[in-house]
Amino acid sequence: MIRFENVTKSYPNQSRPALDAIDLNIDRGEFAFIVGASGSGKSTLVRLTIREEIVSSGRLLVGGHDLRKMPQRKVPQLRRQVGTIFQDFRLLPNKTVQQNVAYALQVIGRPRRAIRALVPETLELVGLAGMEKRMPHELSGGEQQRVAIARAVVNKPPVLLADEPTGNLDPATSLDIVHLLRRIHDSGTTIVMATHDNVIVDELKKRVIELEHGHIVRDEEGGSYVPKAVDTRDLDEYPAEQDHDLDEGSGAPPEDRPIGEVHALDEWDDDAEDLLR
Ligand SMILES: Nc1ncnc2c1ncn2[C@@H]1O[C@H](COP(=O)(O)OP(=O)(O)OP(=O)(O)O)[C@@H](O)[C@H]1O
C-alpha cells in the first residue's frame, strides 16, 4: 500500500539527506511505528507520504501511484485516502468540535445527509459524544487530539498517518489515544505512527521501523522501542524513557467498546483509481 523504493530526500542547504536510499513496504492493514532520535527522518517520511514534500530520487508509491509523478491537482484526492494527525492537533480554533469534523467532509463535497450521519457516529467512536458544541480551547489536549482523530477518520480513509500524536499529552492520556488508534486499526485501517514514546511502542508490540540519520537500521515485527538484543549499558543512546505507568489509564470506557468498520475502502487499488479520474 505504501512502498518506498530507494527513496532519498534531501533538503536544500543540508549536508546530508534527511532520508537516504530508503526501501520500505507497508502493507494494507499493518500498524507500524517509526522510531528514531530527533532528526532521524521520521517526519520527513510522513510528509513525503502525503506529498507535503517530494522525493529527491527513487520512487514512492501510495496505492500504486508514484507520488513524484502525481499532478498537484490530484493531491487532495490522495489526502482523502490518507488521514493524518499531528502532535499539535491543528484544529480550526473558531469552529466547534462538530464543525471541525464536519468541515473535513464539506471541503470534499460530501452531501449534507452523509455529514449529518457520519459526524455523530465518528464523535461517538472517539469518545466525544456530548462535546459537539465545545470550542477547541474548551477541551483538554487529549480531547483535542480525539477531535483531530475524528476529523482524520470521518471520511473512512484506508490509511492513517500519525506524526508524534502523543507528543503534547501526559502519559495516561497518551495511552488512551493509542488505545483508540489500536481500535481504529482493528477495524482494518492501516496505521503508520512516528513516535518517541517508548511505553506505547512497548505496549502495542507492533512492527517497529527504526531510523538513524535517514537510514533504516531496524525493521522488526512485534518490536519494542529499543532493539530486543540491546545491552542495557547502551540504553543511554536512546531518548530518555517516559515515565508511564502501563496500568494507569484515565479510565475512559469508550476504548473497550467494539467499533464498527472504520474504513469503507477495502480495496485501496480500486479506490486509487479514483485518483486517476
Ligand atoms: N524543511 C526542511 N528544510 C531543511 N531541513 C529540514 C527540513 N525538514 C527537516 N529537515 C532536516 O531533515 C532531517 C530530518 O528531519 P525530520 O524532521 O524528518 O526528523 P524527525 O526524526 O522527525 O525529528 P523529530 O523527532 O525531532 O521530529 C533533520 O536534519 C532536519 O534538520
Task: State the assembly state of the protein chains.
Answer: single chain
Form type: globular
Q: Termini distance?
A: 19 Å
Total number of strands:
10
Helix content: 25-40%
Strand residues, percent: 15-25%
What is the averaged pLDDT score? Answer: 86
SSE pattern, N- to C-terminal: EEEHEEHEHHHEHEHEEH
Alpha-beta content class: alpha/beta
CATH level 1 name: Alpha Beta
According to CATH, the homologous superfamily is: P-loop containing nucleotide triphosphate hydrolases
Subunit structure: Homodimer. Forms a membrane-associated complex with FtsX.
GO molecular function, one term: ATP hydrolysis activity
Family: Belongs to the ABC transporter superfamily.
Protein name: Cell division ATP-binding protein FtsE
Task: Give structural notes.
It is globular and about 45 Å long. The longest helix has 16 residues. The protein has 8 helices and 10 strands. 40% of the residues are buried. It has one domain: P-loop containing nucleotide triphosphate hydrolases (Rossmann fold), CATH 3.40.50.300. Strands 6-7-8-3-9-10 form a 6-stranded mixed beta sheet, with helices on both faces. With 277 residues, it is an alpha/beta fold. The two termini are 19 Å apart. Bound molecules: adenosine-5'-triphosphate.
List keywords for this structure.
single chain, 277 residues, alpha/beta, 30% helix, globular, disordered C terminus, binds adenosine-5'-triphosphate
How do you describe this structure in short?
Residues 2-238 form the ABC transporter domain. This protein is α/β, with parallel strands linked by helices and 277 residues long. Helix content is 30%, strand content 20%.
